[in-house]
Amino acid sequence: MAIHKDKKLVFLYVLLSLSVFILVFEIVLRILFALQISNFYVEYKDLLEPTSHSLLGYQLKPLSQHKFYSINQNGLRGEPIESPKPPGQARIIVLGDSIIFGLGLALEDTYAVSLETLLKNKYNWPDVKVINMGVPGYNTQQEEAFLKMKGFDLQPDLVILGFCSNDSDPANIIDKNGILLAENPIRNVSDMNVRAVLNQSRFFVYMKYLFKRTIYNHPMLAQRFKANVFLNSRVYEKNWSKMKETLKHIAEQCQRHHKKFLVVLFPNQIQLYGKEEDNKIQQDMTSFLQAHNIDYVDLLPAFIAHRQEPLFLDASVHPNIKGTMVAAEISAEKISTGAL
User: Fold this and answer.
1) Are 265 and 296 in contact (CB under 8 A)?
2) What 8-state DSSP symbol labels residue 78?
3) C-alpha–C-alpha distance, residues 128 and 158, integer Å
4) Cα(40)–Cα(181) distance, rounded to whole angstroms?
5) 3-state DSSP assignment of residue 235
6) Beta strand 65-66 pairing with 69-70
7) Radius of gyration, alpha carbons of the chain
8) What is residue 174's DSSP assignment?
């Protein structure tokens, strides 16, 4: 009896010690985040501003600049846009989040500029213009609102939507300093799920970051522990179904405006090292897009073919220069064969 009691005391002591450690670590991380030391989204400081639009929440600030990011008078990254569209110009707009915006990339290395360069030089389309409408942190609902607010006015012939596995997440929150805050903010009951609740903890977010770095640096671990299973949980969330409904709405709007629509599926880094049958996100998205006759490009096979080379910026979903060029090459080939 005494031994059994001692074991229970040891267990309670270990549990209490671990709880105190996590609590202290949580407090320290929250202080660091408050001081903007650990906040990943400080990358966009001075580029974002609140907007009264109920769905957008925030937008890129026209004529702002931070590091090597410059925003034009249209509130988009890139060169000023001619209005009205010049006669004979084939115009493409690209909706998306920080992947399309070009996190960590110079302007000339972004997806939109790379795609335009390929279409002009490799496919001999001198009068094509690709416009970057990527806004850091936007989800699919915000992209739809942005398309209606600004995209159609740019007179595109083709609308591209760069899809990422986190596009079903609730919209981010911007603070008074123009900095995006926590992942998966919870505003109401519809935003609630296990992942969203856990993401309110800075300790959990930091541990998740360390896990990702370990997995990305040791691909064999990703295969052994089936790391992409963590991504697959998104498919069963309520927001995932809402995101797919929004994609249907965008396709219908493009059809009504007589614009072609193309979805480009960007892979998560973890997916490059899992088995094909484990990639539920890709399976679900391609099945959905096929069922609704929405044209798409799945970049996962091309990224897998190049996975011996670095394709991402550290432990993130953001492609580096090589990864962005691979995405642009596959997209340009698709467009040249009839998507525009």
Assistant:
1) yes
2) S
3) 11
4) 9
5) helix
6) antiparallel
7) 22
8) B
Look up residue 150 and give its amino acid.
Answer: K
**Going residue by residue through the chain (340 aa), what tens digit of pLDDT does each one get?**
555 556 677 777 777 777 787 777 667 766 665 544 444 455 666 888 888 888 888 999 999 998 889 999 999 999 999 989 999 999 999 999 999 999 999 999 999 999 999 999 999 998 999 999 999 989 999 999 999 999 999 999 999 999 998 899 887 777 665 555 545 555 555 555 555 566 666 666 666 666 666 666 666 565 555 556 667 778 888 889 999 999 999 999 999 999 999 999 999 888 887 776 678 888 999 999 999 999 999 999 999 999 889 999 876 789 999 999 999 999 999 999 875 5
* 8-state DSSP, 149: I
- 88, two tokens: 């004979």
State the CB neighbour count (10 A cutoff) for residue 310.
14
* Alpha carbon 142 to its chain's center: 12
Q: Quote the crossing angle between the two packed helices 238-256 and 280-291, to the nearest 10°.
A: 30
Cβ(69)–Cβ(123) below 8 Å = no
Non-local CB neighbours of 240 within 8 Å, separated by 6+ positions: 168, 234, 284
